[in-house]
Write a structure and sequence with these properties.
Elements: E1 14-16, H1 18-31, H2 36-51, H3 62-70, E2 81-85, E3 89-93, H4 99-117, E4 119-127, H5 134-141, E5 146-151, E6 172-178, E7 181-187, H6 194-203, E8 212-213, E9 228-229, H7 235-250, E10 274-281, H8 289-304, H9 321-333, E11 335-337, H10 339-352
Parallel strand pairs: 3-4
Antiparallel strand pairs: 1-11, 2-3, 4-10, 5-6, 5-10, 6-7, 8-9
């Protein structure tokens, strides 16, 4: 559940190579009872997300996921099962799996079935927080397919002109790839993610106008008075949030966002009942693979080649460009960790005898 305003790791206390971060995460998850394959999947998803600069949904989530495994909120060895199956439509029960495990099970099923049917839609219920939605849309894109992904989430966002948080920061992610280049949109349907509010609180910085409201629905710039996040673009953002809830919760038979508990606040012994929804399209079934590749390349190139505004600080970009740039930088210099995450990883690395350059 990411946004274009992800907070940077400005007070990073340490940096880890992607290899070391993955090794630590795999070892910790294995110790928690997660099978080798699933542990590697979850570790890779968290590392890749942080590598791309989406720090709120990357490595910082590992301690929380470990706590959910310990408390019986997430199941270490789930039996993900199909409860409805028509071929191009599949409904899965995740058995309380870690959300990454459930999300990748859905993405793999979609990738396997879409070439036979042209399209495959997979719903998931009885799951947990699955991190960045782009993990799954990009998984599909990297296989020559088009991925569309959303999920339900605990409430943070009030309806336009409303006071009570009803919707999560319900992400919508779309991805497609051609010759190593990609379109990778992963956006929250709120003005900002809640992580940005917490970051501003920590540093005593005012919020931008329009980001959040207080308990009476009035605009809040004091982060300590922020009660609900505001939808992106007002009423239109509310509509997008409702689309995510419709697909991720209503369609999958999962609890609506306002019935979900926030990560870190769930009762032990049962899953958070999060629902996910993925759509996979095979270009071969529509305009054709070659036509799609040519059109996508033209779309990306033409957009990037648009002359920037006179006072623009950067050239025109397409969704995914900033993340690709950050990934190149962090692959060379390491992934920065905030102090809390750095301490957690240092303790786990020491516990498992893993060096910083593993």
């Amino acid at each position: 559940m990411t946004s274009v305003h992800e907070p940077p790791a400005t007070d990073a206390a340490a940096r880890l190579t992607p290899q070391a971060a993955t090794a630590v995460a795999v070892a910790a998850l294995r110790e928690a009872g997660v099978p080798e394959g699933d542990a590697r999947d979850v570790a890779a998803a968290l590392t890749e997300t942080s590598l791309r600069g989406i720090d709120t949904h990357g490595l910082r989530l590992l301690p929380q996921y470990l706590a959910e495994l310990r408390d019986g909120i997430a199941t270490a060895r789930p039996a993900v099962t199909a409860i409805r199956d028509t071929g191009p439509a599949l409904m899965l029960d995740a058995d309380g799996a870690l959300g990454v495990v459930a999300g990748l099970a859905a993405a793999r099923a979609a990738a396997e079935r879409a070439p036979a049917h042209g399209v495959c839609a997979v719903g998931v219920r009885n799951s947990n927080h699955f991190g960045a939605a782009s993990v799954y849309s990009r998984y599909l894109a990297q296989r020559g397919l088009v991925g569309i992904v959303t999920t339900s989430a605990a409430p943070r966002v009030a309806p336009y002109s409303g006071t009570r948080p009803l919707y999560g920061t319900n992400p919508l992610s779309f991805a497609a790839s051609v010759d190593g280049d990609e379109f990778a949109l992963d956006m929250a349907t709120s003005q900002v993610c809640f992580g940005e509010i917490k970051e501003r609180r920590k540093h005593g910085r005012a919020l931008d106008t329009g980001w959040a409201t207080d308990e009476n629905g009035r605009p809040a710039t004091d982060p300590d008075r922020a009660y609900a996040l505001s939808p992106l673009g007002g009423y239109k953002g509310q509509g997008l949030a409702m689309v995510a809830t419709l697909l991720g919760a209503v369609l999958t038979g999962s609890p609506a966002d306002w019935h979900l508990e926030h990560i870190g606040e769930s009762a032990p012994g049962r899953s958070r009942q999060v629902g996910h929804f993925l759509i996979c399209l095979d270009p071969a079934a529509f305009g054709g693979t070659d036509s799609f590749a040519e059109g996508l390349a033209d779309l990306l190139t033409t957009t990037r080649d648009t002359p920037p505004a006179v006072d623009a600080a950067a050239p025109v970009q397409v969704p995914g460009d900033p993340q690709q740039r950050i990934a190149r930088e962090r692959a060379e210099h390491g992934i920065p960790l905030d102090p809390h995450t750095a301490r957690a990883f240092a303790e786990l690395a020491a516990r498992h005898g893993i060096g910083a350059d593993a």
